Amino acid sequence: MSNRAVQPDAVPTPPNPPSPAPASTSDRPARSATTADVIVVGAGPAGSSAARHLATLGMDVILMEKQELGRDKVCGDGLTPSAVRELVRLGIDTTGWQRNTGLRVIGGGHRLHFPWPEQASFPSYGMARPRALLDRDLAEHAAAAGARLITGITVTAPLTTPGGRVIGVSAKPSARVTYPGIDRPTDFTAPLIIDAGGVSARLATAMGRTKDERRPMGVAVRAYYRSPRADDAWMESQLELWDGPAGSSTLLPGYGWIWPVGEGLVNVGLGSVSSRAATTRIDYRAVFAAWMRNVPASWQLTEDNRVGRLASAALPMAFNRKPHYADGLMLLGDAGGMVSPFNGEGIAQALMSGRLAAETAAQAASRTSRAGRERALAQYPAALKAEMGGYYTLGRVFVSLIEHPEVMRLCTRHGLPRKHLMKLVTKLLSDGWERRGGDSIDHFIQLLTRMVPAA
Ligand SMILES: Cc1cc2nc3c(=O)[nH]c(=O)nc-3n(C[C@H](O)[C@H](O)[C@H](O)COP(=O)(O)OP(=O)(O)OC[C@H]3O[C@@H](n4cnc5c(N)ncnc54)[C@H](O)[C@@H]3O)c2cc1C
User: Fold this and answer.
1) Of ligand 1's atoms, which has the minimum distance to the CA of residue 153?
2) pLDDT band at residue 5 under the 50/70/90 scheme
3) Residues 6 or more apart whose Cβ sits within 8 Å of residue 11
4) How many structural domains is the chain composed of?
5) Which of 179, 200, 266, 412 is the 20 to 30 A CA-CA neighbour of 423?
6) CA distances from 166 to 31, 54, 385, 418 (A)
7) Looking at ligand 1, which residue's alpha carbon is closest to its atom 49?
8) Is there an atom of ligand 1 within 6 Å of 46 CB?
9) Atom 21 in ligand 1: residue holding the nearest Cα
10) Residue 86 shares a structural domain with residue 169
């Protein structure tokens, strides 16, 4: 994908300052079908969160998604309390979504339960929801607030000025595009463009923002199964995967999860992480098959009970693509490499980046000079860094330790039974630590994240 330069006179003028309250559609002047205050590419958690928050702040936003709503998405579907906190901020109705009370961790001969603690900033429960449903709900939630959602349209290239500022996108509709009057390749323009297109980050890549190979990268595979334990209240993590009886057979690479997601289903997957974006040469399908032959029969994870395909995808971690804002283009979620190196979680971070991007964009729109707007937009990477920078630096150290199987084995065998240590590890791994205040464990993590340079 290459970017197309357009003449400077095509640079869209910045929007008028947004009204403080969301404007009803009847209050607004007639809008152009192809211009907006902000264009968001990708209606995953990051894009839909941004679009919802932007629309709520009174901004005119076009949200473009290449797939149709309800498409399948390769994910573990797990929502920690940190993700639930963002869902609360979005104001989405989660009635009927599968809830869980904590983590069950199995490894090193131990089987321990770590309930999610109730804290000032986090609820005492997590959730899980198949991504086909979660992403549909989030996109519809954005549209309900006034975001103009277009599905069935693929963004093919950024539009840039000769000076390299991104001022729009070229997009190609499919036969199933959901937008009146768009039936051929069309250019859309806006003063701010958001790449929320996931790990492929097509706009960012076209603008030369390549991934940093020195940052960690994960790979994971997952499948859905019907299971009699689909209403289990715990998210189960298996820190050791065996190809026979536990403890007396061969240890397989990676860690596994079995998470009840509702609808009578569990999401089963395994992943591994390396401190650099090098290929691991692991045959994940073979490892998955070997693991499945040895999971406890009570789960009934048989081929007959498998629903849909076994699929894999990459997890871009620890801010492996930057800058998160420059030249009119913001990167959110996986496009900005925001998956946690501690646990492979990316939904909470995607939702959070959408919120921070929207707040920044609304501030920028209220500035009256170009320089003022740029200063305001620069607050987005600064906010990400303040929230996650030191934490992700620690995460990179964590990955470089646990990628050595002998270190992982030592931690599993000797660390798991230590209650206080595991309380710390659970908070650290699930991003469930208070940024301000909290207990002695929160204070300790705050101190650690301040001692290291922000990622
Ligand atoms: C196997 C696996 C298990 C995982 N398990 C978990 C988990 O349990 N919990 C968790 O929090 N995270 C998990 N993750 C990570 C999580 O899936 C991602 O971090 C998350 O999806 C990032 O959201 P996003 O909105 O940034 O990107 P995405 O969810 O990838 O959304 C990007 C959207 O952009 C659209 N798009 C892409 N390109 C274009 C284009 N050119 N034009 C128009 N639209 C476009 C795509 O169709 C997609 O809908 C897992 C990942 C994997 C691979």
Assistant:
1) 43
2) low
3) 161, 165, 167
4) 3
5) 266
6) 21, 19, 23, 52
7) 44
8) yes
9) 347
10) no
Q: Which of 334, 338, 342, 355 to mutate to test the pocket of ligand 1 (most atoms within 8 A of CB)?
A: 334
Are 161 and 207 members of one domain? Answer: yes
Q: What is the number of the ligand 1 atom nearest to the C-alpha of 354?
A: 25
Would you say the CB of residue 127 lies under 6 angstroms from ligand 1? no
Between 174 and 178, where is the model more confident? 174
**Do residue 195 and residue 232 come from a single domain?**
no
Spell out the residues 6+ positions from residue 293 whose beta carbon is closer than 8 angstroms to its own: 243
For residue 146, the Cα-to-chain-centroid distance in whole angstroms is 23
Of the residues 69, 195, 315, which should be mutated to test ligand 1's pocket, given the most ligand atoms within 8 Å of the CB? 315
Domain with 114 in it: 78-127+214-316
The CA-to-CA distance between both ends of the chain, in Å, stands at 29
Q: What is the pLDDT confidence band of residue 424, given thresholds at 50, 70 and 90?
A: confident
User: Of 226, 190, 144, 240, whose CA–CA distance to 36 is shortest?
Assistant: 190
pLDDT digits (tens, 9 = 90+) for 191-243: 999 999 999 999 999 999 999 999 988 999 999 999 999 999 999 999 888 87
Q: For residue range 138-162, list pLDDT tens digits in order.
A: 999 999 999 999 999 999 999 999 9
pLDDT band at 50 (very low <50, low <70, confident <90, very high): very high
Residues 290 and 172 in one domain: no
What spacing in Å lies between the alpha carbon of 57 and ligand 1's midpoint?
25
- Cβ–ligand 1 distance for 256 under 6 Å, the answer no
Query: Does the CB atom of residue 222 touch ligand 1 within 6 A?
Result: yes
Q: Would you state the pLDDT for residue 172?
A: 97
- Shared domain for 65 and 140, answered yes or no, is yes
> Which of 288, 316, 344 is the endpoint of a domain?
316
Q: Report the nearest atom of ligand 1 relative to the CA of 335.
A: 26
167 with 87, same domain: the answer is no
Distance from Cα 198 to the centre of ligand 1, integer Å: 5
Are residue 266 and residue 312 in the same domain, yes or no? yes
Check if the beta carbon of residue 370 is closer than 8 Å to that of residue 104: no
99 pLDDT exceeds 90?
yes
- Of ligand 1's listed atoms, the one at least distance from the Cα of 312 is 1
Q: Ligand 1 within 6 A of 346 CB?
A: yes
Please indicate, yes or no, whether residues 62 and 191 belong to a single structural domain of this protein: yes
- The pairing of strands 38-41 and 192-195 is parallel
Residues in the chain: 455
Task: Mark which of 387, 418, 438 sits at the end of a domain.
Answer: 387
Identify the pLDDT of residue 24. Answer: 40
Q: What percent of the chain has pLDDT over 90?
A: 63
Q: Does the beta carbon of 78 lie inside 6 Å of ligand 1? A: yes
Q: Which atom of ligand 1 is nearest to the CA of 219?
A: 53
Model confidence over 337-358: pLDDT tens digits?
999 999 899 999 999 999 999 9
Residue 119: give its domain's CATH number. 3.30.9.100
